[in-house]
Amino acid sequence: MPQPILTAAAMRDAETAAVAAGTTYAALMATAGKAVADTAARFALGRPILVLAGPGNNGGDGYVAASILAERGHDVIVAAHGDARSAEAIAARAAWQGQTIALADAEPRPILIDALFGTGLSRPLDADVATTLQSLVDAAEFSLAVDVPSGVDTDTGADLGAPHGLTATLALGAYKPAHLIEPAAGLCGHLFLADIGVPARGSWHVIARPQLVPPPRDAQKFTRGLVVVVAGAMPGAARLAARAAIHAGAGYVILAGADAGQPEAIVHKPLGDPADLAAILDDDRIGCVLIGPGLGRDDRASALLDIAVASRHPLVVDGDALTLLGREAPHRLAPRADIAMTPHAGEFARMFASADGKLLATLSAARAIDGVVVHKGPDTVVAAPDGRAAVQIERSSWLSTAGSGDTLAGILAARRATGVDFFGAAQQAVWFHTRAAKLAGPAFVADQLSHYLPAAIGECL
Ligand SMILES: NC(=O)C1=CN([C@@H]2O[C@H](COP(=O)(O)OP(=O)(O)OC[C@H]3O[C@@H](n4cnc5c(N)ncnc54)[C@H](O)[C@@H]3O)[C@@H](O)[C@H]2O)[C@H](O)CC1
Ligand SMILES: [K+]
Fold it and tell me: Where does the YjeF N-terminal domain start and stop, copy by copy (predicted)?
């Protein structure tokens, strides 16, 4: 079951439901605080601990953790900021028997637990709090954020003054968008997830390793999936996409408009007049069409795009095709069924207004085109028009290289052509793309990525 991603409100609803089902907020806080204490204890190694406890339940978690760590013999001081408000936070604070100082008077300690603010943060950190927090994180040898780093927007991943350099973050109960969406995701450090006994479900989840089966006994190249990649002004990008498609499980790949070179398995079909594409696409065996990589932005490119959009096959729109569509994308694509697009941040911004954070913006775009949107980046979001979304958690910064996007588009076309719907195919493609990058090792060239796709697929059988 893929890990769900919950907004602050959804998490509160899940906690309320858990309480309605018989637990108590105090018990949830006790469980959360113990998870914090256990995680900190694993890394404390006897070093002095400083707990920063804020005014809300995040602070309450901090007080619970401090009491547990002190009971286990750790040297713990609590630096308090604001007066505890909720009954369970007041109780947790009252139960703390150790030394409490004001945040402003806190001296650095090797182990730092940030329990100032969690999902209740509603505005940027006060400058003095942010400064103090940053200096304490800088001085710590190990720093752990409780639930989320203090100073991030839980639901959008925006940075509201959070410190840089945290060692780790312990997500409580479920991942939130801030754990996966930049810039907050990049501030979390190592990410741990603690189960606090709150059943969490939702329409958003983390992209998980695909579970595949080998082709059926009676498979043949067309039933495994026929992909057509349309080449344009810069055929190298389309070649990369075609190679990715043939290595990502497609049974047959046609490269229309350019000669693929290697592997020989890719079939080259010349494209003289753009109308030749209509003839190539007039084939019911086609499982998916990909247009955009290296297409160019001239009249010929536009004519080829019109023909691809008018075709009846599942369609992946990438690269230059997205630039050609621009703000017309919803108008041009919404009438068309079974479609997906793979914009990077710049292409996305040119097509869609940005809503409140990458997750909601991508969901809004998916609704606008009535198709799947793969909003690429270190925090790639896959969104479906029905409100489902999946966010990647595995990352490779080495994918920031020319041709990486062409490769992803080719993988997506192949997975769709094998018969997986675009929401599932896009998650598989993102997972395979990143897994191939990790298998390729550092500083790979995009041309090498395809060679690692069969190994990545092998890990999913
Ligand atoms: N709900 C539960 O039973 C559990 C919650 N868990 C933990 O609780 C936090 C969420 O706690 P909450 O009280 O809603 O808010 P915070 O502690 O995150 O924020 C405290 C409080 O601070 C005020 N505030 C907001 N922004 C600012 C700001 N910039 N400066 C100053 N003050 C600010 C606002 O009034 C907030 O209410 C969650 O993250 C978990 O850590 C438990 O894990 C499980 C039980
Ligand atoms: K925190």
Answer: 11-204
ipTM of the complex: 0.94
- Please tell me whether 237 is known to bind a ligand: yes
> What is the structure's pLDDT at 52?
98
Name the CATH superfamily, with its identifier, for domain 8-202. YjeF N-terminal domain (3.40.50.10260)
Ligand 1 atom at shortest distance from the alpha carbon of 12: 1
* Ligand 1 nearest-atom number relative to CA 146: 41
Confidence at residue 260, expressed as pLDDT on a 0 to 100 scale = 73
Q: What is the pLDDT of residues 433-461, one digit of tens each?
A: 999 999 999 999 999 999 999 999 999 99
Per the CB < 8 A criterion, the answer to whether 162 and 187 are in contact is: yes
Nearest to 103 by CA among 53, 167, 139, 49: 53
What distance in angstroms lies between residue 260's CA and the mean position of ligand 1's atoms?
56
The verdict on the CB of residue 422 being under 6 Å from ligand 1 is no
Tell me, what's the pLDDT at 174? 98
| CATH no. for 221-458 | 3.40.1190.20
What's the mean per-residue pLDDT of the chain?
96
Contacts with 17 (C-beta within 8 Å, 6 or more apart), sequence order: 198, 199
Q: Is 61 in the pocket of ligand 1 (CB under 6 A)?
A: yes
For 134-152, what is each residue's pLDDT tens digit? 999 999 999 999 999 999 9
**Would you call 373 helix, strand, or coil by DSSP?**
strand
Q: Decide if pLDDT at 254 tops 90.
A: yes
In whole angstroms, what is the distance from residue 453 CA to residue 416 CA?
16
What are the tens digits of pLDDT across the range 387-413? 999 999 999 999 999 999 999 999 999
Q: Alpha helices, DSSP H only, in 329-385?
A: 329-333, 345-351, 358-369
320 lines ligand 1 (CB under 6 A): no
**What's the rounded Cα separation, in Å, for the pair 217 and 279?**
31
Domain boundaries, the chain: 8-202, 221-458
Non-local (6+) Cβ contacts of 454 within 8 A are: 247
C-alpha atoms less than 13 angstroms from C-alpha of 206 in its C-beta half-sphere: 21
Contact 344, 405 (CB under 8 A): yes
For residues 232 and 294, the answer to whether their CB atoms sit within 8 Å is: yes
368 vs 354: CA distance, rounded Å: 13
Equal CATH topology for 8-202 and 221-458: no
Cβ 62 under 6 angstroms from ligand 1 = no
